[in-house]
Write a structure and sequence with these properties.
By secondary structure, this protein is α/β, with parallel strands linked by helices. The chain has 15 helices and 6 strands. α2 crosses α4 and α9 packs across α11.
């Protein structure tokens, strides 16, 4: 389609990011946005906005486009973070929090980095005050900012509207729990949702995945598992507890596998993803790089007509691709 045009931007980190993306596009031979979209597993409109602006694109989209153009993802992550950090002072001040507490003075050895380079902002939703207090303590000790707490679905909606979090960690064993999750995901696709619940029945798990959650853990998870899940969800990975995956797979009808054109390596990668394995651990298990794992995920999404890893996990469970 030739050289993509973008609006003129004032100098600064955002302009530098788009200049570098344009250079990468030229070096790749200036493929069309539709061609890149097929490689990246996203819409061509999203590709065009990611390459041309004028607004800062989502990191997930930048990563997919850079992968499709064979660019250095880590270099572009640094440029994206610089652009986001430059925009941070213009972000409107958060509204009043719901049941917010002053963060305790803690020593953080391994803080969780936010996708935008600032502190991670989390809303915690749980109907049990004692459990909620413990979860908030664990998260704050990991260096995140718990901007609000809520004890039910309606309070969760108000908290997210007022505080613009990066992530919601929520139970769903409460009135309209799943409906609220679906509503939050629909209103803000950039919002990550990690479910932390005692419910492990097949129907609930599949409904939660369909509602747009990026992670599903059970409440007996160790604190470090919860913290790791927060990191991975913020990076765009899908996190599904092994017991939850087992419960979902056990209740599904085995109708046989269609010929989906997947290689044995791709099928093995899907199995590992569905078991909740991180990209880094998959790379180690398969003897490849993390970049290769990400490229393979993108290729699988394209083959199956899917757009993200959560859809892939749900598809794998529903189509018996998990063993």
């Amino acid at each position: 389609m030739g050289r993509l045009r973008r609006p003129e931007l004032p100098g600064g980190p955002l302009a530098i990011l788009f200049d570098q993306l344009r250079r990468l596009h030229i070096e790749a031979g200036e493929p069309s946005s539709r061609h890149i979209a097929r490689q990246a597993g996203i819409s061509h409109d999203t590709v065009h906005r990611t390459l041309t602006g004028p607004a800062l694109p989502r990191w997930t989209n930048v990563e997919l486009v850079v992968h499709a153009l064979d660019g250095d993802v880590e270099a572009y992550r640094a440029r994206w973070l610089a652009a986001r950090a430059a925009e941070e002072p213009a972000r409107p001040a958060a509204g009043p929090a719901i049941a917010e507490h002053d963060p305790p003075a803690v020593s953080v050895d391994d803080p969780i980095p936010a996708p935008d380079g600032a502190q991670v902002r989390i809303v915690v939703v749980d109907g049990h005050p004692v459990f909620r207090f413990g979860l908030v303590t664990v998260l704050r000790n990991a260096g995140v900012t718990v901007v609000a707490e809520a004890g039910d679905g309606e309070a969760a909606v108000r908290a997210c509207s007022a505080n613009r979090p990066d992530l919601v960690v929520s139970d769903i064993a409460m009135p309209i729990g799943l409906d609220v999750i679906a509503r939050l995901s629909a209103e803000n696709p950039r919002l990550g949702v990690l479910v932390l619940t005692a419910l492990d029945d097949t129907k609930t798990i599949v409904r939660a995945l369909s509602a747009g959650v990026r992670g599903y853990l059970l409440k007996n998870a160790e604190p470090e598992v919860v913290v790791d899940a927060v990191r991975r969800v913020l990076l765009g990975e899908a996190v599904l507890a092994p017991r939850a995956a087992t419960a979902a797979m056990a209740g599904l009808h085995r109708a046989g596998r269609a010929d989906l054109g997947l290689t044995s390596r791709e099928t093995e990668l899907i199995r590992l993803l569905t078991a909740g394995t991180s990209h880094k651990s998959i790379a180690s298990a398969l003897g490849v790089s993390v970049t290769t794992v990400r490229h393979t995920v993108i290729n699988i999404l394209g083959k199956l007509g899917l757009t993200n890893q959560i859809q892939l996990v749900r598809y794998a469970i529903e189509h018996d691709l998990t063993d």
